[in-house]
Design goal:
Strand order of the largest sheet: 3-4-2-1-5-6-7-8
Number of domains: 2
Order of helices and strands: EHEEEHEHEHHEHEHHEHEHEHEHEEHHH
Number of helices: 15
CATH class of the largest domain: Alpha Beta
Distance between the termini: 13 Å
Radius of gyration: 21 Å
Number of strands: 14
CATH topology of the largest domain: Rossmann fold
CATH architecture of the largest domain: 3-Layer(aba) Sandwich
Shape: globular
Helix content: 40-55%
CATH superfamily of the largest domain: Glycogen Phosphorylase B
Structural class: alpha/beta
Length: about 400
């Protein structure tokens, strides 16, 4: 059986976002390739090696006892990301001596481009794929990678295949001198639990009761991390322009948490802005199911897994068209707003509540699009045919 080594900054069971979910959804559907992974451990309770799904995990890095998401940005755990750039490469070299990998797969250039480039220097004959699904603006990423610029840019140029999840990221690959013939556009999929929900009414009623959702209340929801580009501050500002029966669920954690709590307090919205915190990825779909409108007015976006999953849930979606979003966010699938515009967000919420027939039409359009074009069975087959076959040849 052929073997592929994956580089990923983090992985299950903790600190999972769209990139990590993509790896699992894809590898779970491929049984004839043996996958290994080098990733950060963070939590000392986690074993250094274990198998999750179809992936054999090899964990490295500094740890503490069951750290929260916020702890990852504090000493000493905040050293893990820069250390990973080199520790992962040397761990991969060590593992390769034992397991004899046939190829490698690096998930996101900003976090794994450098280690896969070093691994390639050690093993010139090994082919690798680089996946781009960054949510940050390319200009910001390139600025942060300047100290390691040569290795970072090499990760683009030396890749046999650069898989991108949007045309927007494909343009970034071209700017980094990747030949068009080496770029494969393969989108992510929506959360399968949103496409085919299997949660009882009793379970959803219990969750509504937990967050005190009353009859006649409208819940806005955002299931993206609490980061500047997700513009949760604009949603909170918009809340001040909306009736008191409208509340906002923030499902997730991140660096913006304290700032957002302060903003809600300053605007007198503490009772209407609900910070759920980090939720197991398998449970996130339940929060969409008890909500009424998905709102995420992103300032930058690689593609937007959370948007696809919201559409799969038949939730009306309020979004910008920044980055990769413009490939599926339009007037037929969502309520489009400009970035940094709380006023437009508030107006879109009012429009949704005042026009149920339009909501039915648009949410059905969006659900149909996601079902046909953004499902993981299709994504996994494309990855196998267009990416893994090339790096294993």
């Amino acid at each position: 059986m052929k073997k592929i080594l994956i580089f990923s900054l983090s992985y299950y069971p903790n600190y999972v976002s769209g990139a990590e979910a993509a790896i699992k959804e894809i590898t779970d559907r491929i049984d004839d390739i043996e996958f290994h992974m080098v990733t950060l451990r963070y939590n000392s309770d986690l074993p250094k090696e274990e198998m999750i799904g179809n992936v054999i995990i090899h964990r490295i890095g500094l740890t503490s006892k069951n750290p929260s998401f916020a702890d990852l940005g504090k000493m000493p755990l905040d050293l893990n990301k820069p250390l990973y750039q080199f520790l992962a490469a040397f761990k991969a070299k060590q593992l390769h001596k034992k397991h004899k990998y046939d190829a490698a797969w690096a998930m996101m250039a900003h976090s794994t481009g450098v280690p896969v480039a070093i691994f390639k220097l050690f093993n010139p004959k090994i082919k690798y794929a680089l996946t781009l699904q960054e949510g940050d603006a390319p200009e910001y990423i390139e600025k942060t990678m300047k100290p390691l610029w040569s290795l970072f840019t090499s990760s683009f140029k030396k890749a046999t295949v650069v898989q991108v999840i949007s045309k927007f990221l494909g343009e970034w690959a071209k700017k980094r001198e990747v030949a068009e013939k080496n770029i494969e556009l393969i989108h992510n999929g929506a959360n399968p639990k949103d496409l085919k929900p299997n949660v009882s009414k009793e379970e959803l009623d219990k969750l509504k009761a937990k967050y005190n959702k009353k009859e006649g209340e409208v819940y806005l929801v955002n299931t993206a991390r609490l980061a500047p580009q997700k513009a949760n501050d604009d949603i909170i500002t918009a809340m001040a322009m909306l009736p008191e029966n409208i509340k906002f669920l923030l499902v997730g954690d991140g660096d913006d948490k304290n700032m957002l709590k302060y903003l809600a307090r300053e605007l007198g919205l503490e009772d209407r802005v609900i910070f759920v915190g980090q939720v197991d990825r398998g449970e996130v779909s339940k929060y969409r199911q008890i909500s009424d409108i998905f709102v995420c007015p992103s300032r930058s976006e690689g593609l937007g897994n959370a948007f696809l999953s919201a559409m799969a849930s038949r939730l009306p979606v309020i979004a910008t068209q920044e980055g990769g979003l413009r490939e599926f966010i339009n007037e037929k699938t969502a309520w489009v707003v400009q970035k940094d515009s709380p006023e437009q967000i508030a107006e879109a919420v009012k429009n949704i509540l005042n026009d149920p027939q339009k909501v039915k039409t648009i949410t059905e359009n969006a659900h149909q699009m996601v079902s046909q074009e953004y499902n993981w069975d299709l994504v996994a087959q494309k990855m196998k045919d267009k990416v893994f076959t090339k790096i294993l040849s």
